[in-house]
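Predict structure. Chain length: 160.
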Amino acid sequence: MTQPPHDEPTASSPQELREQVERTRTELGKTVEALAAKTDVKARAQEKAAEVREQAAAKAGELKGQASLKGGELKEKAAGLARQAQDRLPDPVKDRAAQAAGQARAKAARAGRMWQDKAPEPVRQRTAQGARLARDNRKALLTAAGAAVVVWLACRRRKG
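Prediction complete.
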């Protein structure tokens, strides 16, 4: 005959015995579920993957913010360098640049009139659309051009 465990009193009636058996079954069921969860490799891997995805998304957001901040700093620095380069240009060079710009505008106007006379309508519409886009984003285009000039001047200075 088996002896009852020392931590549980023996049942004095069949009803108590049934209740003890039911409690033991419930506890055993919970233990089996816990063990099954620990051995379910696929579920644990999915949980770990979800955790890693959350961490990666958080890190990506952090890096995006840092990149945005650094981009703003670089943009300010490039604008400052462009202003310095323009301030250092001698007046005769500025005058020649203004003259060249005027001549370029005049030639562009002539080319535009010629283009209007000879280009097919669908091509002219697409060109007009591109020109509107460039005008609408003029500040960004000028900033990019200024940055390109600064980079060119910096590279030229290092070579010389």
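Summary: The two ends are 102 Å apart (CA to CA).
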